[in-house]
Amino acid sequence: MDYQVLGQTGLKVSKLCFGGLTIGPLQSNRPLAEGAAVMRAAFDAGVNFVDTAELYGTYPYIRKAMADGGKHIIIASKSYAYTYEDMRTSVETACREIGRDYIDIFLLHEQSSRMTLKGHADALAYLCDAKRQGIIRATGVSTHTIDVVRAAALIEEIDIIHPIINIKGIGITDGTAGEMLEAIRFAVDCGKGIYAMKALGGGHLNAIAAQAFAWILAQSGITSIAVGMQTIDEVLLNTAIFSGKNPDSQLWDNVKAAPRRLLVEDWCAGCGQCASRCPAGALAVVEGKVRADYARCILCGYCGAYCPDFCLKVI
């Protein structure tokens, strides 16, 4: 496993970051011991970096996985809080539930425009104070937009940017994968640390996972890549790929054989663009939201490219 310093933070992170969302209650909802065991397997395989968020409900998994032996893990979390006091509460909650007196990286969650960045000025002010007090080590933002990557690159108080980027550009709301890469390289030139998300497009690129991983690993400026993992087989497969090894074919077969389903997020606005493109006729807008007919869904992942709000994921 390769390790590099994330921007100017001094934090040396593994190329593969454990994406915590998938094991928690919002997605696969693994029992605590089972989810923590998957995370611990990643630690044992060389992963020293975990991405999570207040929303994900995965702090207990991290606490248990670290108690089982992962004591030197770098943790990044995020919050939608936009006031000084609400962000203080978010950071204190993370420390208490994870069982640490500090969090390495804390980010403004899912910033959608440079205007939302301005609207979170008070929350960022708390993160800067927390950094001076040693409660966090670095500040940052997560985003699905090129606009925010470019805006955050010019904000002195922001250390880290966590953008969505994948070979097909799935989930980027204001441009292409090429345009996002240009923005990422601009941010790197401005001294920001970059760790990416959704290299597999929220599961829509599972069928071409080897190609998608090879593409993201070849991009300059991206220090680490957060990948959601639900099983120990996925951990073994991904850590092998990120370590430059050729995974056993049986591992590929095991991961491909794992049961999956299409998830439609609560924030679906029912625009119907996905339904009109579904080749299996498995999607329909019902009472203002998309509903999936799981008997018809073939998990091809085509729908994800047409959702303007990244509501569809294969989990």
UniProtKB/TrEMBL annotation:
Keywords: Iron, Iron-sulfur, Metal-binding, Oxidoreductase. One of its GO terms (molecular function) is oxidoreductase activity. The keyword Kinase does not apply. InterPro entries: 4Fe4S_Fe-S-bd, 4Fe4S_Fe_S_CS, AKR, AKR2_Oxidoreductase, NAD(P)_OxRdtase_dom_sf, NADP_OxRdtase_dom. SUPFAM superfamilies: 4Fe-4S ferredoxins, NAD(P)-linked oxidoreductase. Its EC number is 1.1.1.-. Residues 259-288, 289-315 form the 4Fe-4S ferredoxin-type domain. Pfam families: Aldo_ket_red (PF00248), Fer4_10 (PF13237). The keyword Iron applies. PANTHER family: D-THREO-ALDOSE 1-DEHYDROGENASE, NADP-DEPENDENT OXIDOREDUCTASE DOMAIN-CONTAINING PROTEIN. This is General stress protein 69. It comes from Sporomusa sphaeroides DSM 2875. The gene is yhdN_2.
